[in-house]
Specification:
Structural class: alpha+beta
CATH architecture: Beta Complex
CATH class: Mainly Beta
CATH topology: Metal Binding Protein, Guanine Nucleotide Exchange Factor, Chain A
CATH superfamily: Peptide methionine sulfoxide reductase
Helix content: 10-25%
Radius of gyration: 14 Å
Shape: globular
Strand content: 25-35%
């Protein structure tokens, strides 16, 4: 089992830039305002960079003012969440259900109808226009 795990990490390192690897495989965060995806509001779909799964429709994207692409909902059954207890506070991490890539965090300060803000790292996503 350890051999498969480490060969998988090496494969991910070969496929991703250092920043993409840090965010997607090590649950890191890109610098606020650094993603060009934050300012894209065209019709289309955001895909997981790791496995190309459709994850967020452009119809649920909004400008949160945080400097990260933000959505109030994902497509059905495409993300998984887990508690992130870093720095003595609990946040909700969001990951791709298929390849496990880290997207970002979900907060309870988003717009209606869900009240959620999926605050995502643009390096984890690829945008495909309609």
């Amino acid at each position: 089992m350890a051999r498969n795990f480490f060969s998988n990490l090496l494969e991910w390192k070969a496929l991703l830039t250092p920043l993409q690897y840090k965010v997607m495989r090590r649950d890191g965060t890109e610098r606020s305002g650094s993603s060009p995806l934050d300012k894209i509001y065209a019709d289309g779909t955001y895909h997981c960079r790791g496995c190309d799964l459709d994850v967020y429709p452009s119809t649920t994207k909004f400008d949160s003012g945080t400097g990260w692409p933000s959505f109030w909902q994902s497509l059905p059954d495409v993300v998984r969440t887990k508690d992130d207890r870093f720095l003595l506070r609990v946040r909700t991490e969001v990951h791709c259900r298929r390849c496990g890539s880290h997207f970002g965090h979900i907060f309870d300060d988003g717009p209606a109808p869900t009240g959620k803000r999926h605050c995502l790292n643009g390096v984890s996503l690829v945008f495909s226009g309609a």
